[in-house]
Design goal:
Layout (H helix, E strand, L loop, with lengths): L6 H20 L7 H24 L5 H11 L4 H12 L4 H27 L7 H10 L1 H14 L6 H11 L2 H11 L10 H24 L4 H11 L5 H9 L4 H26 L2
């Protein structure tokens, strides 16, 4: 039987093997279009918007709590949740999701930290070059970037390579969902209820507003599905890591993340039923 202690190993396998394989396989036939580049920009700007909302909503809280709040209300969990979710129910939307995640990843891998440190008044030694290096060290982001470059030049990967990668990619959904269950944490000190409730309330309150906006916008159906699902997706792993680095209790961060997975799964399933595929 696996325990939480095995989560690190499982996470490493997902981030370095099955997720990059899934990205390459799903983008192998990608046709670069203007609307895809709009999604990349949306991934970046929505992160910025949610950080600003988090900054306003938490302005009376202590510095550590403010950082936790802003990290938790911003960011979109694509690789470990939305991607395997869409792979199972609507795989044709994965290329659009991947483009959104490129913009999302820029913020998660360093952009959010720069913005949040600036807001709380910390002068962390983070540079644009540092963010770029961090992004390129991320195998999933490098896979996104590689496929974007290859498909921009209409380069087609060998069928034999795609067939090998498909074997690994097919394991991504199962392993990602298994890891979610492995990390589920439902213990929380009573004194932290208010902070967690407000954090999740702001994240999903804004998420539902964005959902309604995207639902009624006259945009292509596939793009509508992607943006609506992302609006109510769970807290990303990077936000959890950054919150702990900022000094927030692992117990509080773990509980908030776990509850967001439950809420996110409920709303994403409801969204898919409402929009239809």
């Amino acid at each position: 039987m696996l325990s939480k202690a095995d989560g690190g190993t499982l996470s490493t396998i997902i981030l370095n093997v099955t997720l990059p394989a899934a990205i390459i396989v799903n983008l192998a036939d990608l046709q670069i279009q203007t609307n895809l580049l709009i999604l990349l920009l949306a991934g970046f700007l929505l992160n910025c918007l949610m950080i600003l909302i988090g900054a306003v909503a938490s302005k009376r809280k202590k510095t550590v709590e403010r950082e936790f709040f802003m990290y938790s209300v911003s960011g979109y969990n694509v690789g470990n949740f939305t991607l395997p979710f869409l792979q199972s129910f609507f795989p044709v939307a994965v290329p659009l999701l991947a483009m959104f995640d490129m913009g999302n990843s820029i913020m998660l891998a360093g952009g959010s930290t720069v913005a949040i440190d600036k807001i709380v008044g910390e002068k962390a030694p983070v540079t644009i070059l540092g963010i770029v290096k961090k992004l390129l060290k991320s195998i999933p982001f490098s896979a996104y970037l590689l496929m974007l470059i290859l498909r921009s030049g209409e380069v087609v990967l060998p069928t034999s390579l795609i067939d090998i990668l498909k074997v690994m990619a097919e394991a991504n959904t199962f392993l990602s969902m298994f890891m979610v269950g492995l990390y589920l944490e439902l213990n929380l000190p009573r004194k932290s209820y208010s902070l967690v409730t407000k954090t999740l309330g702001v994240r999903y309150g804004c998420g539902l507003i964005l959902f309604a906006l995207f639902y009624f916008l006259p945009i292509p159906h596939t793009m509508k599905i992607v943006l609506c699902l992302l609006s109510v997706s769970p807290i990303p792993t990077f936000s959890v890591i950054n919150s702990v680095k900022a000094g927030m209790s692992e117990e509080i961060v773990g509980f908030t993340s776990s509850i967001s997975f439950i809420i996110g799964l409920f709303f994403m399933t409801l969204a898919l039923l409402l929009i239809g595929i």
